[in-house]
Write a structure and sequence with these properties.
about 575 residues, 4 domains, two-stranded antiparallel sheet, two-stranded parallel ribbon, about 70% helix, CFA54 protein, CFAP54
Length: about 575
């Protein structure tokens, strides 16, 4: 920083002002590309901007007129305006990245507010630049920056606070004539989808559906214009329009599949399809499957719609729980969605339809009348399949969970990429968590393996392995056994030197919290025994509980999740207290 500071001081009086300013911003861009955001912010972007403003830069962002008079005294048509706009945008990006580097989970309220201030500043910059068509590139870049920050905040549960900014980004894309071309339609549809998702996150699904339908209208309007005079290859434009339409249709289906059932009279409720008999029924078998077929022309698109309809940001992986009990119609729809997803994953729906249509977002291929999951361009998306299994666990759809696990695990074990090994470990942890969370509850009643569709030896071996896992979960006896298996498995996962195969921190947090809740009472009894700690441990055979506590503490340390939950401090303090009591015994 000092070296760069001295360079700027040394060369500023020797260079033309315009050249100096361009180099200043260019060096900032280079530093940002190598993730030196603080240096780029302080020694480049803000150094450039402070030539025009003597007060705090954030104070100028509060009023549009003050903003324009400070940074654009000669108007936005000035030859230096583009450089100024770029520096203003880059400054906000650096501020956001610096927040992420020190507080990725936005646990500090100031971190969240800083991100919101960056969004406000980006919006103000775009507002001033929007009337100038020659600055459309800046509007486009601004929408990307806003989307990036908003998606992060949405994951952190702040959808209500970022909705207005995503709406603004969408409107900007519609208001800039150069950005209305087909070339930018895919990005515009992505913004529309984000807005709809925000509404769903805010429990305002009707507005999410309305906005998605509005997006469909906008896409259709552009398609009509494009049909009149197309500058791109017909196949290319068709692909773009199909992808954009699919995104909007999925968001519409997300609400329509549930609301259509709510509107039905309870007397007209259909009886559930028995999974053992479902294999003999023709696709589509249920109201949900009929809606899928009506709205989507390929199994790939149907599978994507199922995933989106089941996804809910307010639902965590743990504790798993079914939909709201009092809404039986919703529970029926959820079960039907899982049943349809499993049917697609197994390939049975394709065998019944006797045809195959390729989609854009997910690709399927029919091989010997069976769907196969692949990591390449063809086949069921591995990521989508893994997500489906996790959703089944979250909803307590145990039959679907174990049946889908069988298919997905066969695929994962055949892959060498660390990404898939990580997914394999995560699914393994879920199978071990099920008997811990619901000891003795699960009873195997149905499996895809029962349908006899296994081909060769791989699927059969997968079936044997899956059933072995189920039997393991059903073994009666000391509940500590399941806890110890889960704890030692997680410990081995985080102990490997290959960081890229470690399970996601969210799953690790859930597992540790689960272990702590199961062991907490016993451990507190040991802790309260004071100087008689060793006697208590010996008399109550409590060594195992202390062992699990030690493993939990090691997992927290090795996976760097200590700052994600205040409860982890209690775990560490409990271990320290027990060790002190043992030392004093």
């Amino acid at each position: 920083a000092n070296t760069l500071f001295n360079i700027w001081i040394k060369y500023k009086p020797r260079l033309p002002e315009w050249y100096y300013n361009e180099r200043l911003v260019k060096v900032g861009d280079t530093l940002a590309q190598i993730k030196e955001y603080k240096l780029a912010l302080l020694q480049c972007y803000e150094r450039y901007l402070q030539q025009f403003v003597s007060v705090n830069l954030d104070d100028v962002m509060e009023d549009v007129q003050r903003f324009k008079s400070a940074f654009f005294p000669n108007g936005v048509r000035d030859k230096n305006a583009a450089l100024m706009f770029h520096a203003l945008q880059a400054r906000n990006v650096c501020i956001y990245e610096m927040v992420c580097s020190r507080d990725r989970n936005l646990q500090n309220p100031e971190s969240l507010q800083t991100c919101l201030n960056a969004l406000t500043s980006l919006r103000l910059t775009m507002q001033v630049a929007l009337p100038q068509e020659n600055l459309c590139w800046l509007i486009y870049n601004g929408t990307i920056h806003i989307y990036t920050i908003c998606r992060h905040l949405m994951v952190m549960g702040q959808s209500a606070k970022v909705l207005e900014y995503l709406l603004w980004a969408s409107i900007c894309m519609e208001s800039s004539i150069p950005l209305l071309s087909v070339h930018y339609l895919t990005w515009r549809a992505t913004l529309y989808t984000a807005v709809s998702q925000c509404y769903f996150d805010c429990q305002a699904g009707i507005h999410g559906e309305i906005f998605a339908r509005r997006g469909l209208i906008k896409i259709d309007e552009l398609k009509q214009l494009e049909d009149i005079s197309s500058s791109l290859e017909h196949t290319e434009t068709e692909k773009i329009f199909r992808e954009a339409t699919l995104k909007m249709s999925v968001m519409i289906f997300k609400r329509a599949v549930y609301e259509s059932r709510r509107n039905l009279n309870s007397i007209r409720r259909e009886s559930k399809v028995n999974p053992r008999k479902a294999v003999n029924l023709s696709w589509p078998r249920t109201t949900t499957e009929r809606l899928l077929v009506a709205m989507f022309d390929s199994a790939a698109a149907q599978f994507l719609a199922i995933l989106e309809a089941l996804s809910d940001r307010s639902r965590n992986l743990l504790p798993p729980h079914p939909p709201v009990p009092e809404e039986m119609q919703i529970r029926d729809v959820t079960s039907e969605l899982f049943s349809a997803g499993l049917e697609i994953l197994s390939g049975n729906c394709l065998k019944k339809q006797k045809h195959l249509v390729r989609s854009l977002d997910l690709h399927f291929i029919l091989v010997e009348n069976i769907f196969v999951i692949t990591a390449g361009e063809k086949g069921v998306s591995g990521d989508a399949a893994v997500k489906f299994v996790k959703l089944a666990f979250s909803y307590e759809e145990w039959n679907v969970f174990y049946s889908a696990f069988e298919f997905v695990d066969n695929f994962l074990q055949a892959q060498d990429d660390p990404t898939w090994k990580k997914a394999e470990l995560e699914l393994k942890l879920l199978t071990l968590m099920q008997p811990v969370v619901f000891p003795g509850k699960f009873e195997r009643s149905f499996s895809i393996a029962d349908r006899g569709i296994s081909k060769g030896g791989s699927t059969h071996r997968g079936s044997e392995k899956t059933q072995a896992i189920r039997k393991e979960s059903l073994k009666p006896g000391d509940p500590f056994r399941d806890l110890m298996i889960l704890a030692t498995t997680v410990f081995s996962c985080v102990s490997t030197t290959e960081q890229n195969v470690h399970p996601d921190k969210e799953i690790l947090v859930d597992v540790v919290m689960c272990l702590w809740q199961k062991c907490k009472t016993e451990l507190q009894q040991i802790q309260m025994s004071g100087s008689h700690c060793l006697d208590y441990i010996h008399n109550h055979q409590a060594y195992q509980w202390v062992h699990i506590l030690w493993i939990m503490n090691e997992i927290i340390e090795k996976s760097n999740i200590a700052d994600t939950n205040v409860m982890f401090a209690e775990i560490t303090l409990c271990l320290a207290a027990i060790l002190e009591n043992i030392a004093d015994s």
